[in-house]
DNA sequence: AATGAATGAGAATTCATTCAT
DNA sequence: CATGAATGAATTCTCATTCAT
């Protein structure tokens, strides 16, 4: 029970203040547990952070994977994936902010590298989808790892823009702006 | 003289450790000045940070603007800009890491918003280039602000990837991966 | 337990060195607690100072009030009050020095005004005693607030003098010197 | 020229913020001189403070002494002195606040004791006036040093009260409240 | 499992003072 | 006489972590 409360409280505190300005005191308050309880469940601040990030990214990856369906054109597949990721980003914006922006310098080496590994896996997953899609397409000579990584940065960037100007932009425009870019490397075979 | 030394020392310390883990003590040591000197030139840590970021982004923006030439096709124009930005990112990687990744939560409100403003101006600049380029092209219905913002996130993301795996990837692949994406929205008139 | 130790240590340090030269480090040492403990119990130096002053003046006021008895001539009443206050001043000289002398400029606005309020209440209390006493006496046209305030300044001033020259003066002379002054405005009815 | 400017600037800064919160930086700014100039004229902060206090008290003492006239009744003499002191207090309130309230703990031992000496001299002067006046009067058994010291505390206290509530009280009430107290120990011979 | 008082290392910041010009 | 950049010791305050209950 407490563990769950702490994870939720931690997501809020970390995403609102960033890893460093987040304090264990505040997390305890937000979670309605005593400070000692934090340390009963998690050995340290950075381990709590890692747990949140790990569980968060696992959840998001699973959700995105669930959009995969068989027998649909790869272009549509990619589109679905991107659409789903954007939706998840906007729905779980706190978690997303953590995952995409708080993985920066200063966090202790070990945690940092484990989290980077999680992110790399996600890039790898998207990369494979692109590659697979491309097998049916006609564009060669593209480095899919790089492109996948770039697309994730692209999505992060525009979702942040959207969240800061929710009235100014339209959710559809986000997906559109990416699809416009990648549709040409994902041309169907029959063409 | 001292001021210059501090700016240089600050860039190193901030980009290596991030805003929060960076300490004024270390900055003083790196800069070879006494701690008090830091405060003689900059009223606070966050103001030093802001100064570094402001001067840094101004330098980068100016450099990128210098690639603009008249009478060349807009697609080439954009390509030059992106190429230049990637080169600058990789050359001034410390500064770039600061500008692209350290603008996150936790930094004090005022500094944060001023820095966001600087970034927004940069997005705006790129956006205008895209728009102008497009006037000669044939694709409509694209939100240039969003696309420009996304492209910047894309560049940041792949440059970081590159810097962490310098042996694995090739600098040309970076530029390529973007150009492949945007060349289709930047088709020349005569087509 | 710690809180009590800190209050005691704080009284000593503050009265010995004044608010500004008193250091939290020293207070921690005097109180035999770690520096962090100070901040666990009191949010800041000025809040610790305020707590000490507030609790101190409450104690003193209560003690002085306890000297009030019914059915004794007002002149005697006043005499008892003044005698008691002087005794308390000399007994709790550290606290008294704080209350009477350390409420000066430089302390942060909020603390300062709250402490001034405490002092004003004390003036008010003495003023009422004078006024009540006077109802039985014969002197009119005196501003009791001003007189009460002045008497407190008088007491402070002579007690300080006494404490700095304990061998030179005699405790009785202190009370005497005031009573000689006010006995004429506190003449009994029957006269 | 500079010296004079610094003294004036110092009085303002010290009385507004107290000795400790006053900063040499601010004094320099208020005085329109560079910080180095401060140290050209005064070896240290506490020596500047001492200079201000010494010159100030000398000025005030001289002014009060000037009210002395020959061949007037001692009671009237005392009254004139007190009236003059109150007037000076209110006219030079900044300086007065310094002289009466900023002589507290924390200031370095040497300066402190010299300033205390100045104050003692002033007490002594008033004491002599009381004593002399009394020779013509009829009250014995009073310690004039103590009474003089108390009266000075009384005056300080009520002047502070007045300055904080200038609308509430009347300047005449201040003098009155003291004279009412001391007139009885200053009865003329012929009575 | 859970608590919260206590800790102390580490950080930012201040400011009187110095000194080369 | 006057300056102001540079200094560094001292100070307040923060906060992750521990531990007895």
Descriptive overview:
- 4 copies of one chain form a homotetramer.
- The model of chain A has no long low-confidence stretch (mean pLDDT 86).
- Chain A folds into 2 domains: 1-43, Orthogonal Bundle (Arc Repressor Mutant, subunit A), CATH 1.10.10; 46-190, Orthogonal Bundle (Tetracycline Repressor, domain 2), CATH 1.10.357.10.
- Chain A is mostly helical and 191 residues long.
- In chain A, helix 5 (74-91) crosses helix 6, helix 5 runs parallel beside helix 8 and helix 6 crosses helix 8.
- Chain A has helices at residues 2-21, 24-31, 35-41, 45-65, 74-91, 93-101, 109-136, 144-164, 171-182.
- Helix content of chain A is 75%, strand content 0%.
- Chains in contact: A-B, C-D.
- Chains A and B meet through helix 1, helix 8 and helix 9 of A and helix 1, helix 8 and helix 9 of B.
- Chain B binds a DNA duplex (21 and 21 nucleotides) through residues 1-2, 23-25, 33-41, 43-45.
Present the secondary structure layout.
Four copies of one chain form a homotetramer.
Chain A: H1 2-21, H2 24-31, H3 35-41, H4 45-65, H5 74-91, H6 93-101, H7 109-136, H8 144-164, H9 171-182
Helix pairs in contact in A: 1-2, 1-4, 1-6, 4-5, 4-6, 4-7, 5-6, 5-7, 5-8, 5-9, 6-8, 7-8
Chain B binds a DNA duplex (21 and 21 nucleotides) through helix 3.
């Amino acid at each position: 029970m407490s563990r769950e409360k702490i994870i939720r409280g931690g997501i809020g505190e970390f995403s609102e203040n960033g890893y460093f300005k987040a304090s264990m005191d505040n997390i305890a308050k937000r979670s309605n547990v005593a400070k000692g309880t934090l340390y009963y469940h998690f050995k340290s601040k950075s381990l709590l952070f890692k747990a949140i990030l790990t569980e968060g990214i696992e959840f998001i990856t699973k959700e995105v994977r669930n959009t995969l369906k068989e027998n649909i054109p790869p272009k549509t597949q990619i589109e679905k994936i991107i659409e789903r990721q954007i939706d998840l980003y906007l729905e779980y914006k706190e978690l997303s902010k953590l995952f995409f922006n708080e993985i920066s310098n200063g966090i202790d080496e070990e945690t940092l590298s484990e989290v980077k590994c999680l992110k790399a896996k996600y890039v790898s997953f998207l990369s494979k989808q692109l590659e697979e899609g491309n097998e049916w397409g006609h564009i060669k000579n593209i480095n899919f790892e790089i492109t996948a990584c770039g697309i994730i940065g692209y999505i992060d960037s525009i979702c942040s823009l959207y969240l800061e100007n929710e009235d100014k932009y339209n959710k559809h425009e986000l997906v559109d702006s990416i699809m416009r870019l990648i549709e040409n490397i994902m041309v169907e075979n029959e063409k």
